[in-house]
Design brief:
The protein is of the alpha/beta class and 185 residues long. The protein has three helices and six strands, in the order αββαββββα. Helices cover 39% and strands 30% of the residues.
């Protein structure tokens, strides 16, 4: 190896750390310009609307007591989201009234003997969001969801699976309703 080659290798070894240092400095200077924001934590509602009340939904579905499960899931959805405070009916800025307008079970999978092995729980609600002070309807919309569950040989286990499917469908409804109410879509 010639003296020229050794000198070139020495220069290359010295330039590489300097290059890395320079690249790091450039990255650090431009990183703050790449701003970000948390998705789902802003609201399209006016700033004066900070609280909501959700009375027990009316049950027009024919399925006994489903209104309690669905209303509780929707309330929990707003509590978990945290952008609107859940308070009593008389003091809230917004009131979310609702009706359960559909409940059905649809078989969607069958065994070789044509016995249903899986069902969809389908639930539909009509919601109406009102601004209390102005007696103004902000939103009125039908929302539908479904959740599947497996049938079991045990009647008790099948009913537990059906109730869990109702619970999960209620959570899915809650997510959609929170999104529609708070984010406007």
């Amino acid at each position: 190896m010639t003296a020229e080659n050794r000198r070139q290798k020495t220069e290359d070894r010295l330039l590489f750390p300097i290059f890395c240092l320079l690249l790091s400095v450039i990255c650090l200077l431009y990183l703050p310009a790449c701003g970000y924001s948390l998705v789902g934590k802003t609201s399209s509602l006016p700033q004066n609307l900070n609280s909501i009340s959700i009375p027990i939904f009316l049950n027009k579905s024919g399925e006994p007591n489903i209104e309690f499960e669905i209303t509780n899931r929707i309330r929990e959805g707003f509590i978990e989201d945290g952008r609107l405070k859940m308070i009593g009916d008389r003091d809230s800025d917004l009131i979310l009234n609702g009706e359960i307008i559909k409940y059905s079970l649809k078989p969607v999978a069958f065994d070789s003997k044509d016995n249903a092995t899986e069902y969809w729980v389908e639930i539909g609600v009509m919601i109406k969001l009102e601004e209390r002070e102005k007696d103004n309807v902000i939103l009125q919309q039908e929302i539908y969801t479904k959740w599947d569950y497996k049938v079991s040989q045990s009647v008790t286990e099948a009913d537990i699976n059906r109730l869990e499917a109702i619970r999960q469908a209620g959570k899915k409804l809650a997510q959609e309703i929170v999104s529609i109410v708070v984010e406007g879509f």
